[in-house]
Write a structure and sequence with these properties.
Oligomer: single chain
Number of domains: 2
Shape: globular
Strand content: 15-25%
Helix content: 25-40%
CATH architecture of the largest domain: 2-Layer Sandwich
CATH topology of the largest domain: D-Amino Acid Oxidase, Chain A, domain 2
Structural class: alpha+beta
């Protein structure tokens, strides 16, 4: 987007989310989706339970800074990606403004017991034997210089192109509507 002339003061920073899955013997404990009440002070929803179409039940995610743009593993590292994120003042402000939250998220990343404790806030009967390590995902977050995340879609157009710069959590659910919107903008600008 920058190379195409879009003026950005924000920076995209990656956060990894780790999931656990319920073992078969514990799936009866979760009948529906279970979500916490979101804390408006934090840019992340918190752990929740999701029934997948294949019958699996995902628990999570946590949210930790990733040291690689596509860092799905806990120890993935790329010097250029890390430098890019850490050379931006907004990244440091996000860290310092949320220090205790961030430390707790890293505890959950490396400790099954800590992850389980957060799940037990929603389903107290869960035990260590009920969960197993699942997949991880990476979420790109648009940060401003104050360390605040942008929680809404950001779509910018230049004379030659249209860029989707921020697509927060509902993006997958709304992907067809977003596609329609981008197509309409394209038609308005370029189909003459």
């Amino acid at each position: 987007a920058r190379k195409d002339g879009v003026k950005l003061r924000e920076r995209v920073v990656g956060f990894r989310g780790d999931y656990y899955e319920l073992n078969d013997h514990a799936k009866h404990k979760i009948k529906n989706l279970i979500y916490p009440v979101p804390n408006p002070d934090f840019p992340f929803l918190g752990v929740h339970f999701t029934r997948m179409t294949n019958g699996e039940i995902e628990c999570g995610p946590n949210a930790v800074f990733t040291f690689k743009r596509e860092g799905y593993g806990k120890t993935d590292f790329d010097l250029r990606d890390t430098f890019d994120a850490l050379s931006y003042s907004g990244t440091w402000k996000l860290f310092f403004n949320n220090i205790s939250f961030g430390i707790n998220e890293y505890r959950r990343a490396f400790s099954k017991r800590h992850f389980l404790k957060s799940l037990q806030h929603l389903v107290p009967s869960l035990t260590m034997d009920d969960i197993r390590q699942g997949r991880s995902g990476v979420r790109a977050m648009l940060l401003n210089t104050d360390g605040d995340t942008r929680d809404d879609f950001r779509i910018e157009a230049t004379d030659r192109s249209i860029h989707v710069l921020n697509a927060p959590s509902p993006a997958a659910t709304a992907s067809l509507a977003i596609g329609d919107y981008v197509a309409d903008r394209y038609a308005e600008r370029f189909a003459k």
